[in-house]
Design brief:
By secondary structure, this protein is mainly beta. 12% of the residues lie in helices and 36% in strands. The protein has one domain: Pseudouridine synthase. The two termini are 28 Å apart.
Length: 218
């Protein structure tokens, strides 16, 4: 159940700490997804909440859901306008040569029968920009903060690999799978609301990061 993973709740918004391994959309194989938990996240409302954005199946952390259609439309507008602030942390299979910077690599989708679909650098693709900084390193890996200015599919995962030269640890598509899972976590989210307090949430530090030697001091 996800009722004990609520980070923010009011009449318009619900933010949960989505566990790694739970897809937001129902997968083709019919496996359990967020939809299977929505009935337990109504908190007195008849209407089920609706996810405003997506997190990859293996990414954990802050996921915003709307509690009514008008709020949903406003939140979507905020996402499209880039008005919200998202903060991710990731463990990378390598240590970047610089301490911080901005990755500006447009992304496009490619697919093949052998590897399936994936995103990659594409000068003709959609613009994608991510600010980043190294927080720490341990045993040949780096803990990196990512602040995406755009919200492209797999943006952080591809920017880590193609922009910094180091895949997210455990990334099954762009790197190498890891027994602990993929080390990408949406740790904080802020959504401004004109005339109201911001929607703000911070997710707990993931245990799988701690197991790799990175504690929650980020």
């Amino acid at each position: 159940m996800l009722g004990d993973r609520v980070l923010f709740l009011d009449g318009e918004a619900l933010v949960i700490d989505k566990p790694a391994g739970l897809p937001v959309d129902r997968p083709r194989d019919g496996a359990t997804s967020l939809e299977n938990h929505l009935a337990s996240l109504t908190f007195g409302f008849r209407r089920w909440p609706v996810a405003v954005h997506r997190l990859d199946r293996d990414t954990s952390g802050c996921l915003l859901l709307s509690r009514n259609p008008k709020a949903h439309a406003r939140f979507q507008q905020a996402f499209e306008a880039g008005a919200l602030r998202k903060r991710y942390v990731a463990v990378l299979d390598g240590v970047p040569r610089e301490a911080s910077g901005t990755i500006d690599l447009p992304l496009g989708k490619v697919s093949s029968a052998e590897r399936g679909w994936r995103m990659t650098r594409d000068p003709r693709g959609k613009s994608a920009r991510t600010d980043w900084r190294v927080i720490g390193d341990h045993a040949g890996r780096a803990l990196v903060e990512f602040l995406p200015a755009t919200g492209r599919t797999h943006q952080i995962r591809v920017h880590a690999l193609e922009g910094l030269g180091a895949a997210v640890t455990g990334d099954p598509v762009y790197g190498t799978a890891h027994p602990g899972g993929m080390m990408l976590h949406a740790i904080a989210l802020t959504v401004p609301r004109p005339g109201k307090d911001d929607v703000t949430a911070q997710a707990p530090w993931p245990e799988r990061f701690t197991a790799l030697g990175f504690d929650g001091d980020a």
